[in-house]
Description:
homodimer; about 550 residues; alpha/beta; TIM Barrel; 2 domains; five-stranded antiparallel sheet; 16 helices; 25 strands; globular
Amino acid sequence: MHRLALEKRTLGVSFLPSGKAQVLVWAPLAEQVELILNEGNTSVPLKKEDFGYWSVITDVIVPGDPYKFRLNDEQEFPDPASLFQATGVHGASQAFDETAFSWTDDAWQNLPLQDYVLYELHTGAFTQDGTFAGLEEKLDYLINLGVTAVELMPVAQFPGDRNWGYDGVFPFAVQDSYGGPEALQHLVNACHQKGLAVILDVVYNHFGPEGNYLGAYGPYFTNKYNTPWGPAINFDDAYCDGVRRYFTENLLMWFRDFHIDAVRLDAVHAIKDFSPVHILREMKEQVNQLMEITGRTHYMIVELDLNDTRFINPLEEQGYGMDAQWIDEFHHALRVTVTGENTGYYSDFTGICDLAKAYRDAYVYDGQFSPHRQKTFGVKAEDNPGQQFIVFTQNHDQVGNRMLGERLNELVSFEMQKLAAGAVILSPFLPMLWMGEEYAETSRFQYFVSHTDPDLLEAVRQGRKAEFAAFLAQGEAPDPMAEETFLSSKLQWELLEAEPHKTMHGYYKKLLKLRKEFPALKHLNRKCLEVQENEAHKTLMV
Amino acid sequence: MHRLALEKRTLGVSFLPSGKAQVLVWAPLAEQVELILNEGNTSVPLKKEDFGYWSVITDVIVPGDPYKFRLNDEQEFPDPASLFQATGVHGASQAFDETAFSWTDDAWQNLPLQDYVLYELHTGAFTQDGTFAGLEEKLDYLINLGVTAVELMPVAQFPGDRNWGYDGVFPFAVQDSYGGPEALQHLVNACHQKGLAVILDVVYNHFGPEGNYLGAYGPYFTNKYNTPWGPAINFDDAYCDGVRRYFTENLLMWFRDFHIDAVRLDAVHAIKDFSPVHILREMKEQVNQLMEITGRTHYMIVELDLNDTRFINPLEEQGYGMDAQWIDEFHHALRVTVTGENTGYYSDFTGICDLAKAYRDAYVYDGQFSPHRQKTFGVKAEDNPGQQFIVFTQNHDQVGNRMLGERLNELVSFEMQKLAAGAVILSPFLPMLWMGEEYAETSRFQYFVSHTDPDLLEAVRQGRKAEFAAFLAQGEAPDPMAEETFLSSKLQWELLEAEPHKTMHGYYKKLLKLRKEFPALKHLNRKCLEVQENEAHKTLMV
């Protein structure tokens, strides 16, 4: 039987040293599976194996060949483990040898987590070019700024060529419009040669609404749980073994075959898993084994809307072993302090006292009643060091989920923005910048998609309008489908030469330099930290 | 604010030393709440407090008074924390002073868990009388048999007067047709005076389909999870604090005010809770505190369809701290060994090898692929002692969920039944008998209900027919609604005087005596146990 292998990819089409291809598909309810090439003119039957897997070793397919699978002698579908969808989510998969790249990063060693200074960016909007190649040209800029780790918003293939990335439907495939898998390998290699770590945003809690053919292959979803995106991904119901392996292989692939240093796992609170061993814990155990084999270090960082240390506690303490988590609460406390906003989830925060608590305890809610959530929320994180928490003045969500996509600098004064940046960069946590904030970029980051299904498009448009109906006074929500919405979200690099952007850029550089050079600021032990807040004067001394 | 108190009941109507009643209702979305007495002629407004509670202290209500609550000046409903529904689930609640009973069990001390020999019974079907008073008359019989703990199937108020108990809708109220709350206190007192422990079956994973008025009071349910019974009880969504407190108070009440020694928590795998602190763990922490205060000992035993030691591991090891769990797998392995059945969940078992594994490892599936579940199932339980596992040759489910409700002795020979009884009673686990098996009772235990809602009745009838459509050759499924189905499920005590029942009864007594007297058989450490199976000869040496 083909089992998950740490050393190499097993799902999908993989090339063996002999040059032959090993093909492996999980389709536990299928009666027949064939590999289809040459636009349907060549078909190779796969043999049924244990536990719903189908496989064949063949020499009819070589890297670059388009292929699909035909199920039950009926319909043809792209490969769930496709590495490249050269013609988009509905087209054929394209065979790719992920082991062929000539890496020159042997000397690279991942940074200690406490030295991470993160920079979140959207590949499409970061440069005019909107590709990995375009991004590569900016690496020196980032290094010069003082960033140590580039965090890419999801690059898994999504429908069309404009999307934040959370509508991905091929977790193993690298977005064609960004340059595909080889360009990603090239980018990571370049980062490593320059001393930058690479964090990849991966989505294991839902699939996008267009181009998801997984249902044809097997029970990837379960009705046991309801999520904002419909039925949950099946991590603990019947047939979950195949689904768990699928995502575990995916994670191992990014680390092993793309040399990714860390992943940012999207919204892991929406991964519903009551198994005795939570999928995140199982993944961590596998990654630990991979690191034993390769000698490289990899981190797992989670986006987590729960103040629950179970996720970040070590495996030995029955935790899931995640290395770090985003703490939105720090953001919310800071945001309310600088803008006074009080709607939605901001209503749980009052300002400087919450910020003081975040400095002291990481979690603001660690056992108190949350009016917004209408329940007691959180546990204490006193034993979790500062490097387990990622903080920011803004991220893609906090900016892009506003109706108009305004960045913080559009909402507060120049001086206030500087204060906020200082609060983050000099915190006893890991700071993360959102692309462009370092020079007070003025372009808004808006919600954009390029679905091709007209019904879906109309539904997204209407949904967006309804969501922001109460904000009509501020104008109309931009059309997510319009190319213009995407184009206007791109960074305007020319601003760097103008004021006040130049000054802000210099200020960020100085802050990051301070953090790097002063030992006290690199010390992420909150227990050595004194925090004094004064609500009346709205001051905070750290 | 009224908080959960360990020392006394707070929800519902409780009587103070002054004679006045303290009334507390959780209705977080209500605009107005009134206590209604005298068939609507007296109303006392409740005052809104924090966190959705409403309360008043009043002298207009005394024990025995019928009452309801009127919500929003509109409809009237019985009390969610009612102790007595003297006229059934749709009628008024009846005030009851749970502290008024004159206990005479001061000398009683709960038995060490390892000395538990359990006897599961259905109060209605155990005697002709079908009440707690009827049951009391049989206590000497049970003691003479060698039983040490009586386990009552659920007694929470259900619709009508015939029900297994899993359709309960008032977790705090004791079924009127069994004799109500005072009769239960009387029974427990009598058990304790005779040296018997009492286990109560409580259902915290669903409510019955008729007479459930909780929805009028608050968000007791959540759509986040789907269960076989519809939306899950809300243990982790918005407003869950009130729901968690409701069930925690319920558990504390049985222990504190009814002197229950242990609970058997129904199907805890269907309690969906992703909170940082699982509700079972939270309950255990509260029970530990209660035991500190009262000096009495109480156990929490769970029915659990998961081989997951997280539930039964100690709190210190991040477990939920449950004292013991039922292991259906031991039953299934034994059952397949003695009957050769192979459909449904029995298809995961082949016979004597599985039974040998159950003796050695408690869990049969502890990391293997389960064909019936279509996934890898279970973890190892090597550090969990034998007293954490309850075993049986049959229970109410294994008998009653058959179309015709046949007991094991109807399906296997007299000698085989004896062998099976020996396998359970001399096992390194806690043995449980199912009422009547000790004398090879011939009446079948069938599925019976007495809903009053005609649409629901018809649905149950049709559902039952459809469930057993494949078994038409064996005859027709008995009508769950017919009184005859209930009456014919009652024990026939006169059999005890006839053969072969008399012989079987003597045999069980001897087995239980052996278990009690031989130190080796009281030793519940599987690590001192040698098991040798021989599949060809179908023998097992322990």
